[in-house]
Amino acid sequence: MHLSLLLPLLSFLIPITVAAPLDPRTTCSLTNTISDGGFESGTNPSAQTPNPWKVDLFFGSTTYSLTSPGSTLSGGGRYAFTASVYPGPFTPTSGETLSQVLKTCPGQNYSIGYDFKFNATVENACSLRVEYPYKDTVGSVTWGSATPGLVPGVWTRDVVLFQAVTKSDVLKVIFRCTNGAKNLISVDNFVAKPYKGNVY
């Protein structure tokens, strides 16, 4: 008998295994979600260099630098990122955006902790806004410089929760002042971890 006649018969006798679709959360790493979260590389972020952090969207006369020491809370190190938020000569609004493309796993829940501080209260005219993925849009938390419980010059720890949408979700940290106010706003010690609870 020709082999071509045997093949249809063999296909009934040999079991065929169909692979189940892979869960995207098992095909990517849950570690190193954030790079240089404590700015301990000592490398100043910019819009051009291959630093994992990027700084752009400047308003007014705002600048930035790595300042030392870093956060005085647990996990803080030698450096912190500090935005010097100053109004320009022709605009009362000033600010900039610090961002990083994360290494995330779609569908995985995460927590991101970070330390921050304002140098002055300035009647809530300055703010720190952290944006993260939220379903098909973004979630955010905003701290005003005069938020009750915050003390100028003292570090505070915050944690946000989100579910990753893609393998390259973006974390944004937006520093902003209005009404001609100025401030030094610092962040440090960004840590991302898988989160087992509900994030919605």
Helical content band: under 10%
Strand order of the largest sheet: 1-4-9-6-7
Estimate the global geometry from the Cα principal axes. Answer: globular
Helix and strand composition category:
mainly beta
Unreliable stretches, pLDDT < 50, 5 or more residues? 1-14, 16-22
For the largest beta-sheet, the strand count, sense and barrel status come to:
5 strands, antiparallel
DSSP strand content? 35-45%
Count of DSSP strands: 10
What is the mean pLDDT?
Answer: 87
Radius of gyration using CA atoms only: 23 Å
Multimer state: single chain
> Could you state the order of secondary-structure elements as H and E?
HEEEEEEEEEE
The end-to-end distance, rounded to whole angstroms, is 64 Å
**Discrete helix count:** 1
Written description of the protein model:
The strands form 2 sheets. The protein has a 5-stranded antiparallel beta sheet with strand order 1-4-9-6-7, with no helix packed on it. A 5-stranded antiparallel beta sheet has the order 2-3-10-5-8, with no helix packed on it. The chain is built from 1 helix and 10 strands; from the N terminus they run αββββββββββ. It has 200 residues and is mainly beta. It has one helix at 3-13, and strands spanning 53-59, 63-67, 80-85, 94-101, 109-118, 126-134, 137-144, 156-163, 170-177, 183-194. It starts with a helix and ends in a 6-residue tail after the last strand. The chain is globular, with a radius of gyration of 23 Å.
